[in-house]
Amino acid sequence: MKYNRILLKLSGEALMGEQQYGIDSLVLSTYASEIQSVVNLGCQVAVVIGGGNIYRGIQSEESGFDRVQGDHMGMLATIINGMALQSALESLDIDTRLQTAINMEQIAEPYIRRRAMRHLDKKRVVIFGGGTGNPYFTTDTTAALRAIEIEADIILKGTRVDGIYSADPEKDLSAKKYDTISFDEVYDLSLKVMDLTAFTLCKENKLPINVFNMNTKGNLMKVCDGIAVGTLVTL
Q1: How far apart are CA 230 and CA 212, in angstroms?
Q2: Distance between CA 55 and CA 57 in Å, rounded?
Q3: pLDDT of the chain along its 235 residues, tens only?
Q4: Least buried of 9, 27, 95, 225, by fewest C-beta within 10 Å?
Q5: Is 49 helix (H, G, I), strand (E, B) or coil?
Q6: According to the model, what pLDDT value does residue 147 have?
Q7: Each residue of 22-56: b (16+ CB within 10 Å) or e?
Q8: Cβ distance 53 to 103 under 8 Å?
Q9: What's the Cα-to-Cα distance from 179 to each of 106, 187, 214, rounded to whole Å?
Q10: What does the H/E/C string look like for the chain?
């Protein structure tokens, strides 16, 4: 494996599959199998999942909710997704720990950096739920922050597209795909990879990002093996 320790960022929306909301059990089991394949080869895996399939805090103001209250609701949605992924992984006999930034001891461990790193050293998959525990921060920022804290080698952002394009490939058929791109080029071209806070954190800490299609079987394994899949963002 090229990477010893990875932080896998998954969107909550990806868990919906073809549904309008909620969790598609087929997608969930597929993701669990992909993670199992790299864990079995010795890769240490931490995961951050969004909550957009259940609730998006940034939309809360449109519904009349206070933004802070809405963001906390979104954090709880990420914990629900984390519990679902934990269950799917454990059904495959993958030892898994769910840690949350919001204390709820009956459900999960509190996030403690040293404990998380110890779990990873013992080849347990660690899922980080509850965002950063603070409103106004996205799960992209959570992924960047946790990856830096646990000294991950790379952030792997699993999406439904196969990399970073010059425009939305689902809307513009002439969009150009980048195999590799620098942080500065992403800034200059105003490409959307992560939110600006998360992206800046990665750049300042020299943490590479690989954006790839998580829905293609075997892609996670290829990326961890160092095979060029998707788009790699480096200095």
Answers
A1: 4
A2: 6
A3: 899 999 999 999 889 988 888 999 999 999 999 999 999 999 999 999 999 999 875 566 666 778 898 899 999 999 999 999 999 999 999 999 999 999 999 999 999 999 999 999 999 999 999 999 999 999 999 999 999 999 999 999 999 889 999 988 878 888 999 999 999 999 999 998 999 999 999 999 999 999 999 999 999 999 999 999 999 999 9
A4: 95
A5: strand
A6: 98
A7: ebeeebbebbbebbbbbbeeebbbbbbbbbbbbbb
A8: no
A9: 44, 16, 16
A10: CCCCEEEEEECCHHHHCCCCCCCCHHHHHHHHHHHHHHHCCCCEEEEEECCCCCCCHHHHHHHCCCHHHHHHHHHHHHHHHHHHHHHHHHCCCCCEEEEECCCCCCCCEECCHHHHHHHHHCCCEEEEECCCCCCCCCHHHHHHHHHHHCCCCEEEEEECCCCEECCCCCCCCCCCEECEEEHHHHHHHCCCCCCHHHHHHHHHCCCCEEEEECCCCCHHHHHHCCCCCCEEEEC
Please give the structure tokens belonging to residue 30.
């597929």
The tokens for 5 are 């320790």
